[in-house]
């Protein structure tokens, strides 16, 4: 599981995370919602060791992410991350893009890596696009390619940083469907999103962040049906 204790993160004089305490259980889908600048994405970057922290502790399966002795490359094999932008290599086909990390990081042969790659592309609905280049794919397909690339490392956890925010509205649904499939498969997921309907439908719990503080956390029916925080109430009134 992921355990976060008294997490503080600042950029210069700006306090972005102000004492976050959070546990994410194995198999849980936690959705984080809130206004831009509330610290949601920064939390994911800290969990994955992409941003240093100022104070506190993040443990992933008992490993202290920010301990200087921690092998972050090895730890990141457990933690897949999907960003707002898909960042595929334009000169590689879909199957080559997904196979790259298993080959380089895990040292698999080309044949072994491409077998895994083909299976994951099939898993996200791109089984007919193995030989396609990123420029030949729609935005939604490129984001599903990014998900397959993360899954190819066989992670225990998946972090999604507003994975649909850069997509045209008509392409959002296909990516959310892929994320629903992962949730159904039992993948542990932390999802930062503005898609409230997805948060209601798929989440085990929803956390609302406000100005670097986790204002409220609970089951979707609690957060959306009977929010306790005034800030949560105002936010939901504006996004519904």
How would you portray this structure in words?
- The chain is an alpha/beta fold and 240 residues long.
- Helix content is 38%, strand content 25%.
- It has helices at 40-47, 72-76, 94-104, 110-123, 139-151, 169-184, 196-202, 220-225, 230-239; strands at residues 2-11, 14-24, 29-34, 55-60, 63-64, 79-82, 157-161, 188-192, 205-210, 213-218.
- Helix 3 (94-104) crosses helix 4 (110-123).
Topology of this protein?
Elements: E1 2-11, E2 14-24, E3 29-34, H1 40-47, E4 55-60, E5 63-64, H2 72-76, E6 79-82, H3 94-104, H4 110-123, H5 139-151, E7 157-161, H6 169-184, E8 188-192, H7 196-202, E9 205-210, E10 213-218, H8 220-225, H9 230-239
Parallel strand pairs: 3-8, 3-9, 6-7, 7-8
Antiparallel strand pairs: 1-2, 1-4, 4-5, 9-10
Helix pairs in contact: 3-4, 3-5, 4-5, 5-6
